[in-house]
Design a protein that fits this description.
Elements lengths: L1 H27 L7 E2 L34 H13 L3 H6 L8 H12 L3 E6 L3 E4 L2 E12 L3 E14 L2 E5 L14 E5 L7 E3 L13 H9 L12 E6 L6 E6 L7 E3 L4 H10 L6 E6 L6 E6 L5 H4 L9 H10 L7 E4 L2 E3 L5 E3 L7 E4 H6 L3 H11 L2 H10 L2 E3 L9 E3 L5 H8 L6 E2 L1 H13 L1 E2 L18 E2 L2 H17 L12 E7 L8 E7 L4 E6 L5 H14 L2
Parallel strand pairs: 8-11, 18-19
Antiparallel strand pairs: 1-2, 2-4, 3-4, 4-5, 5-6, 7-9, 9-10, 12-13, 12-25, 14-17, 15-16, 19-20, 21-22, 23-24, 24-25
């Protein structure tokens, strides 16, 4: 009996030893954890608060003499729940000895990341000791333009004062961040942006628009110090070079500030002036007022700022006033070689041409000075002509300065009124101004010039002015007759062009200035040749080369 009792005692002792060894092995192995996905940052988690759950283990762990409060998985779950809600105070309570700037480090990270949402996917808890644990997790952040940004980190936990706490370092935010480091957002810069054509192309060589582009830069429209192109997130650790962890660069990087100028139209205008001195071509889009081309061989920005007598091209404005006051294109008028203003001076046609009785359409097509002088004196007055000119962008007097489209003084006497009627006297206009006159005829509405594409600031522009329908239709009939049976007929202009020639006397005694304005479809233009002679002889051939190149 004594031997049997001794044998039983030995067997019990052996069993206790085996079970004790097995318990030590379980406490040190990896414990699988169910996946935990946090709710989007700043919103409650779906279904209420979630916790990390340990899967049941077949081997029980030994009960310590003094058990810590909670568990590592519960602490981790609470920490992640607070994180996605940006509740940094709650997170701080779960951290062992948090730094004074714990919340500030999180806010600075979020300010740099600018994430639209944050999700946290949790891995399996790993017991690294009786009172330490580690849990891997993945951050998923939706970034502006760059899509989803994913990176892995680890949360370390330990028992402190009988409570499971997070042992925090900046690497929790991002594994590359060391103590004292931070996440920094940078915005790389492209080189200084120059104005470009509406399609984003650089301007043709020797385009004649160089002074205008320089002006836009000087006015601050195009930045001269570079602009931000995309962005990058960098980890900046003390004593180490910055490391890029995420970047975004748009597929289409800006090459410049877009103007309204069309590359093909600009190239055609520039080539039309090859071999021509002291001339300019301006083209605009009648439906919008957009400047499509400016080729200037006059120097500086003369096509926009320097005013010249427009000559007979101004008869377009005078004709608008006559049409608005009872005449039609078919009205019968006289075109004698000269017209004597009662008690004033005599007005003559070019080369004293006498065309007798004609229609208003024919008088316009043949550019009869005498017809327009007589009709203006007999049917209009100074106020009527000035008001009509104002509707085409002209102003009265000189108060608006050199950037004015066009100007004229109110004529006080009949001879001054007659001279103004055919673009002499006090009438002045820039080539741009006369291109806008032609554009108004085509579209039926005078619009101010627009040099920049829609996304760029245009500054304050004058209001558009619609033309009465009978005036617009009548002017189209008159301008079409010029190229069919008038002063521009028989030239090399392509079909469909309507326009008006002009020969303007130079007040300084030089050779006459040559003009031709017109339109074809949704493109209006003005050609000006300083001291070029007649409109037909100097300006029309340039217009023909320009239009045929399109």
């Amino acid at each position: 009996m004594r031997n049997r009792a001794l044998l039983a005692l030995v067997m019990v002792a052996a069993a206790i030893f085996v079970f004790g060894v097995a318990g030590l092995i379980v406490s040190g192995r990896q414990e699988p954890v169910s996946d935990f996905v946090a709710a989007p940052r700043g919103t409650p988690a779906p279904g209420g608060p979630q916790t990390l759950q340990l899967r049941p283990d077949s081997s029980p762990e030994p009960s310590p003499v003094s058990s810590p409060e909670g568990s590592p998985d519960e602490t981790a779950a609470a920490y992640f729940q607070a994180w996605v809600k940006s509740d940094y105070d709650a997170m701080r309570e779960l951290v062992d000895d948090p730094p004074d700037d714990f919340a500030d480090q999180h806010r600075e990270f979020e300010d740099a990341a600018l994430s639209k949402s944050l999700r946290i996917a949790v891995g399996n808890l790993v017991r690294t000791g009786d009172e330490t644990a580690e849990i891997p997790f993945t951050q998923e952040r939706d970034e502006q333009d760059a899509g989803t940004w994913r990176f892995d980190s680890s949360l370390h936990l330990a028992v402190r004062d009988l409570t499971w706490k997070v042992v925090w370092t900046p690497s929790v935010l991002h594994p590359e961040i060391q103590p004292g480091g931070s996440l920094v957002r940078t915005e790389p810069e492209a080189g200084p942006l120059r104005p470009v054509t509406s399609g984003g192309r650089e301007f043709p060589q020797n385009s004649g628009a160089e002074a205008y582009l320089d002006h836009l830069v000087n006015q601050g429209v195009a930045p001269t110090t570079g602009v931000a192109v995309g962005w990058a997130l960098e980890v900046d650790n003390p004593g180490m070079p910055a490391k890029t962890v995420l970047s975004y660069k748009p597929d289409k990087q800006p090459v410049g500030v877009r103007t309204t100028i069309d590359y093909a139209v600009q190239a055609a205008a520039a080539r039309a002036l090859d071999g021509v001195q002291r001339a300019a071509v301006v083209a605009v889009r009648p439906s919008t007022g957009e400047i499509l081309a400016v080729a200037d061989r006059l120097g500086g920005r003369a096509a926009f700022e320097r005013k010249y007598a427009p000559g007979s091209t101004f008869k377009t404005v005078t004709a608008a006033a006559l049409l608005a006051n009872g005449l039609s294109p078919d009205s019968t008028v006289e075109c004698p070689a000269s017209y004597q203003i009662p008690f004033n001076r005599s007005i003559s046609n070019y080369h004293n041409e006498d065309h007798g009785t004609v229609t208003l359409r024919q008088a316009f097509a043949l550019s009869c000075n005498t017809t327009f002088a007589r009709l203006t004196v007999e049917r209009l007055n100074g106020d009527t002509l000035v008001d009509q000119a104002r509707a085409f962008g002209f102003v009265q007097g000189e108060s608006a300065g050199t950037s004015t489209c066009g100007s004229l003084q109110r004529p006080e006497k009949p001879d001054a009124l007659a001279e103004d009627s055919f673009g002499q006297g006090t009438v002045e206009a820039t080539p741009l101004c006369m291109a806008l006159v032609a554009a108004a005829v085509e579209s039926g509405e005078w619009r101010p010039a627009r040099p920049l594409a829609d996304e760029a600031p245009q500054g304050e522009l004058p209001q558009s002015v619609p033309l009465p329908s009978n005036v617009a239709e009548g002017l189209r009939s008159l301008m079409s007759a010029v190229t069919v049976e008038g002063t521009a007929a028989g030239s090399e202009l392509p079909q469909g062009v309507a326009g008006k020639t002009g020969t303007a006397e130079d007040w300084h005694g030089g050779q006459d200035h040559a003009w031709f304005i017109g339109y074809r479809g949704d493109l209006a233009f003005a050609v000006f040749v300083e001291h070029g002679g007649t409109g037909r002889g100097a300006a029309v051939p340039i217009a023909a080369r320009f239009l045929r190149a399109l």
